[in-house]
Amino acid sequence: MNFLAHIYLSGDNDLLKIGNFMADSIHGKRYLEYHGDLQRGILLHRYIDTFTDAHPIYRKSKHRLHEKYGHYAGVIMDIVYDHFLAKNWNSYFNENLEVYAENFYALMQKNFDILTPKTQNLLPYMMDQNWLVQYASLEGLEIILFQMDYRTKHRVNMQEAIVEVQLYYTELETEFTLFFEELQQHCKEKLIELA
Length: 195
What we know:
With 195 residues, the chain is mostly helical.
């Protein structure tokens, strides 16, 4: 799962959202440097990643891209799954996606000093291009894939995966819906466990 799903799965707890959002740049036991809900957010992020990577539905989706994109098939599928979340946002959340995104960006700016340097560097690009809203359209998805490809060391033309996404669109959306229903329930249980 990518940014939108991680933020959404944090619920309405601001510190949990912040921890979850910046977790990719906190490695190993460095999460112990954080406390309370920030730490819980980091641990929730790791749980989501582990659950997702091991899930047979997600693996089936990702497999369609593996031959052409190798290691980056997972990166691409995380973004594609965020596309389906954004596209169907009103089925999951009762606040407009544009408003949700604006509120999240404002939260990040208000708490900029506690973000990791890597997250601080990423945030302006994310806000400028409004990634959370861009996810909702295929055109936006293609732009985000291009930008992600540009930021990687070994470019594999991730944006070209839009062809496979369109080819398998119905199957991928069905797979996402089934998977995400399970993920939401597991995250609720994990948050109780982390409390």
